[in-house]
Amino acid sequence: MYAQLRETADELAGVLWREHTVYRERGGGVVIRGEHVRRWISLAPTGGKDRALLRAGRILDGGTTAPARTEVVVDLTAGTAELATVCRRLLADVAAGAEPARSAGSGPSRAGRPGKREKPGRAARAARPGRRPRRERHTSPGSWFVLLCVAGVLGAWLYGLFGSYPS
């Protein structure tokens, strides 16, 4: 089955992208990475004859892969053109999900910080009812307790060393 997946993946990679990497994944499937488009496609065996699970996802900053956003079971006996069409549809779904649309008058993003975008349909944390705005981080009471215990042990040790001299 791996040989059939590898052949199919090589053909698909040539049709979809000029620049690509094809490699075997741990589960016995084959992955096609398109670094220049920041997308990946995976072909994995499903247990059925001539059928494979086709998944698609994004490549994140740093080269790691995000989990699959879409998947479909395909028939490997179909031609390369039909499989490429399915792959393009999945890749279009991944691209649409990766870049949420913003309205023209949406104003500044989360808490006025540049470079961060809000997820569509989600309210800002401070605007939610029952939530306090997040303040600076301070040392928690548990951390203070640990620090006091360490200081007490250190003080007792020093007192034992220097406090027992006769006067």
Write the layout of secondary structure elements.
Elements: H1 2-16, E1 21-24, E2 30-34, E3 39-45, E4 51-58, E5 70-75, H2 80-98, H3 141-162
Antiparallel strand pairs: 1-2, 2-3, 3-4, 4-5
Task: Characterize the largest beta sheet: strand count, sense, and whether it forms a barrel.
Answer: 5 strands, antiparallel
Strand order of the largest sheet: 1-2-3-4-5
Mean pLDDT: 76
Radius of gyration: 28 Å
Characterization of the model:
The chain has 167 residues and is an alpha+beta fold. It is built from three helices and five strands; from the N terminus they run αβββββαα. Helix 1 packs across helix 2. The longest helix has 22 residues. The radius of gyration is 28 Å and the shape is elongated.
Brief account:
The chain is α+β, with helices and mostly antiparallel strands.
Features:
alpha+beta, 3 helices, 5 strands, 34% helix, transmembrane helix, membrane, transmembrane
